[in-house]
Amino acid sequence: MDYSAMQDELRALARAKDAVVLAHNYQRAEVQDAADFVGDSLGLSRQAAASEASVILFCGVDFMAETAAILAPEKTVIFPEPRAHCPMAAMVDAEGLAALKAEHPGAVVVSYVNTSAAVKALSDVCCTSANAAEVILAMPADRPVIFTPDCNLGAWVSQKTGRELILWQGYCPTHDLIQPEDILEARDAHPEAKVVVHPECRPDVTVLADAVESTSGMIRFCREDDALEFIIGTEEGMIHRLSTDVPSKRFHLVSQAVVCPTMKMTTLRKAIEALRNGGPVVSVPEETRAKALAAVQRMVEIGR
Ligand code: SF4
After folding, report:
1. Ligand 1: centre distance to CA 88 (Å)
2. Are 298 and 166 members of one domain?
């Protein structure tokens, strides 16, 4: 299908409305191609905060649009598909986290950015998949650490840092679809390729990979590594991103099943309609925003 007319329409509307269009790496290819910036959740939020535009059209899932609203409260954050709730972020809520904190009164709480603003507000510091190890290593050695919500990312970072973590038992249903057999079959089909998977994959999958990388880390790894072919263990949209950024190399999705239905809910048509209508708009109550911002800022101080 030729999307160029709709992409032109979206770009023209964005100019007219003083909007910047942000799209996550897992968005549909035609949405990525119409965006001003494509990236991971934190990178996009930083773009949101740094942009001079007064309006942000955020093509992603709910917690990402909220994070943009946390970092850029003076801007209008438009979220084209309000039903795009990340199921992993929904696996932890403020009440549940408060109860776990009460069970471990001395613990510090590290939350993945894939959480609601309310959960971030109850956390000491946030992390991304790119800096999780660095953040964990910066936590005081004499205090237990609660890690939410992704037990797979938590297990991987625990192994990497040697630090024991109290893991919330959430997970990404899309990355959880990847099985060890998928890696073995993909290696048989592409014997020259290196396997790069996301740390949201299960431990029995990450152990089989040549590299475990965040989405931004995958781009860097595939660009710099000697291999010319890669088997990619993350959401399908990343193949488009990698093929665009590293066009001299070949990328194979580890399994055709690795598609996040929530990420694919946003279409070009919905993006255009939302921008034209000026909504739906995402905002975060100020008290929650201030606390959540403190957790995000602590992460930034620790480093990227
Ligand atoms: S890929 Fe996983 S973590 Fe990302 S939005 Fe989809 S369900 Fe959430």
Report:
1. 6
2. yes
Q: In this structure, which residue's CA is closest to atom 6 in ligand 1?
A: 260
Residue 278 backbone zone (phi > 0: left; psi -120 to 50: alpha; other: beta): left
* Report field, pTM of the whole predicted structure over 0.85: yes
Q: Can you give the CATH number for the domain in which 269 is found?
A: 3.40.50.10800
Same domain, 13 and 149: no
Atom of ligand 1 nearest to the CA of 262: 6
Q: Confirm whether 272 is domain-assigned.
A: yes
User: Which residues' Cβ are closer than 6 Å to ligand 1?
Assistant: 26, 61, 86-88, 114, 172-174, 235, 260, 262-263
Distance CA 111, CA 146 (A): 8
Instruction: Write the pLDDT tens digit of every residue in 19-40.
Output: 999 999 999 999 999 999 999 9
What is the DSSP code string of 138-199? Answer: TS-TTS-EEEESBHHHHHHHHHHHT---EE--B--TTGGG--HHHHHHHHHH-TTPEEEE-T
Q: How far is CA 34 from the centre of its chain?
A: 19
Domain that holds residue 20: 4-85+263-284
Dist. CA 89 → ligand 1 center (Å)? 8
